[in-house]
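One chain shown below:
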Amino acid sequence: MKEESSVSESRKRTLPGRVLSGIKRTVTRLCGKARWIVLALAVYFALTFFFALNLTMNIYCYGVKDDNYVPIIDTPMKEAVEFAVNSSGFAAIGFDIGRDGMTALLNIDSGEKTYANIGVIKVPSISGEYARPYSFAMTDDNVLYAVAANTENGSLITQENVIRISRDHKYLGDVCEIKYADNEHSVTSKLSRLHYYNGKVTFALVEEEGVKLYSVDTKTNALSVSDIYTNDPDGTYTSVVIPIDGAFLFLRSDGNVYKAGFGEPLGESIFKMSSKGELGSSYFSEAVMCGGKLYVADSRKPDEVFCLEDGALKKVFDIHEAKGTENSSIKRLAAYRPAGSDKDVLVICLDNGLLTYSDGQLINKDIIIHTDRYVWMILDTLTDIVFFLLILALIINLIIRKKTLLFKQLITTIPVLMAVTLVITVKLYNTYSEQNTDNIEKEVSIICNLGAAEFRDYDFSPLLEMNSNTGAAYEQLRKKLEGLGNNSLHGRSGEYLLSIVCRTDDGRSIFLARNDLISVPMFAVRAGAEDDMPDNSKSISVVKDIGGLMSDTDHTDSISAYGKISAKGGDGSFFLKVRTEPESFWHQRRDFLIQVGLYFLMIFAVMTALITLLSLYITRNIKKAGKAVERISEGDLTARIKYKSRDELGEICSKVNAMGQSLETLFEEKDKTESFYYKFVPEKFREFLGKERFTDLSLGDASSRELTVLFCDIRSFSINSEMMTAKENFSFVNVIYGKAGPIIRENNGFVDKYIGDAVMALFEKAEDAVKAGTELYRAIVLDPHTAEELNVRDINIGIGIHTGMAMIGIVGESERLSGTVISDTVNLSSRLESLTKQYKTGMLISKDTVDRIPEPESLGLRYLGMVQVAGVNEVKAVYEALDCLPDEEREKRSANTPELREAIRLFHLGRRAEAVSELKALSDKGMNDHVTDMYLGYISGLSDDDSGNVFRFVRK
């Protein structure tokens, strides 16, 4: 035996043995116990999911990423889609970068650092709460106005909210909500862009019946809405409204452009679009006032800016004149006035830059966007490393520490189940995606083929000109598309977009109409508007734009089918385009992925549960005793073990049960002792002093806070007590205290102490003290049953209430402690109680208390003036509570309240003769009472040498 032991020891001394022992000690020391690793992993997952799902936190943790999910740190302007600037040059720019976009704010002149953030913002008033605002307008207060859409099924707009956003991209509130009827839902906005000018944000709503104008006062957020500008009977409609400084531009389907103020009629046309849609024709889609001139831009010629003067467009400049704009196009026009200048500056927002134009000079601002809080993105990467280290540590810990069968089975089966589940899920998704794509491709091809046949010999030529017939022609075409969608798609029209596209002989694409749009920009010609259009050789052509599982998105993926139409007239080839609505198409694949994932998650959960139950069944009896002891140690003294066997484990369980029973008995006695203690020292003292248990209280503990003190004293008790035995005395006061204590506690107060025939109570709120005092007086004095219970003819009490700072603490010595309150507040409330005898009233309240009551006028108080009580140098204003008086006396004192207040006011001002006259008038009218008589006697008795104009009481 000794030889075997020596051999084992010699092996441990070998190099491999020492290495293995060192590795084991190091890993054990670094990884710790497995439960701490699991806890760390749980915290990691909780934080990861919280930050990922909460967009507000996502902004700071993950920052802005491009379409390839690469973090953006510093980048030049690119993919700009929204722009707004206020009159001082502070601008907001929206970028179509990544999934959620990006919003940047900057000062054009000062070069202030650009602040960039994720474009999505939390808007509580819409479903889903998060939205990507669009159509910016920046006020002079650097508040951003924008539009947030509420969508149905992620695609159709059912409501548009105009919202306010702070400089740091936080939601400030809604300005207005524009809801659309069920038959008016659309995938595109019906609002014009927002425009800020002279303290107002203006915009227009373009609907099927006509146009409404809106104006928002940015100071008050007051909303004004004009009467509707209805479409003409001949079908001519307003297709676009552009808000400008102090007015609106109406672009009509007949080619006329009108300028009108808010609510004003259209008047005369200021410009006429050309009748043909050539690229060189007169046309514009952007407009802004700058220096008193109207500058415009044409979306078909996105590199030129024009000035509209005398009914004609005059070219001002080409943006390519500025350096670094070779591949740029105009997105927005705006204007502002730099500080210290008397001239406006024209701002041209490009898709990848920012230009300013003033005094004939075109300047490229070379904007660089800096994303904010990039350090969190670095921490995000570090947390991923920590995650893998924790997983590795957990596996090593479980292997080294030789955990139970449950752990061993879980650590081996869970990773295998997870890997199998993931592989099968991805495989099924890819198979379904291919089948779904093939089915939808066939479906759109059939719809496109049938739809194209419906347009055989259709005359599109009226839509290639702008005149009085254009509106009616467009409405006829749109209605036909809408009817085709409803008839062919059988209630699924929201999943597909139907449009008519024309290809001209010179290779340009013309977008004529779409089934979901009420109106389109008049003769919407754009070079290359349909870059994926097929050639004319095929009758049906399908174009697919679908990403993989990881790159699948809800705003780009789609399948389009082009069906060639044998049209009657027009210059070019006409096509019916049927396109899947991107988000609806994406939802189908997403829902399938979620469904498959849920099924396999259920299987995974069931398999894991079976393995766990098997291991738990083997070890559960051993763990019963351990869990019971753990519960007892955590405070659950009722924990017991149900085990019927009489073996060794049964003996352990019996001893554990006996221990629990003994501890339960001891703690019940402790609770009784603590409960009895609180009858002598209020529990509120412990709370005020910040102690968890009464045994934590010690001599010298103190705290200062504002309290309202109620002092209540039984009238003539000393005289009555002389005629009663000791038992009768205690029985008498205990009846009073038995009524006072519950009333005080019901009104959120507590009794500090009983002082012979007096009660002192403390309240945190003044209104609770006044309410308790009124209920006390009614229950003890005004309720005849109390006198009957005390076997006396009547009983009376006085109550004084005052609010102020008080010191609460523990006084005494090592063998005798007591909780007490030390403060002038206590002294003054006692003095006020004494004054109730002088005023012959039930309750007096200081002005300090009244000032802290939210609605004192509802309490029935009467002002008794400024008084100085004996022993107190400070002068205090006091009130009496009329509700604490018999009905006849209360009505009498209520009737003369205004006259008494006026007499007291005159007395305090030193106009004693007038005060006496006012009081005598009350007496002559028979409206006097004890207080008015007391004031009359006191003021009349003052000598001229006495300059004090307050009521002084020299006796306590």
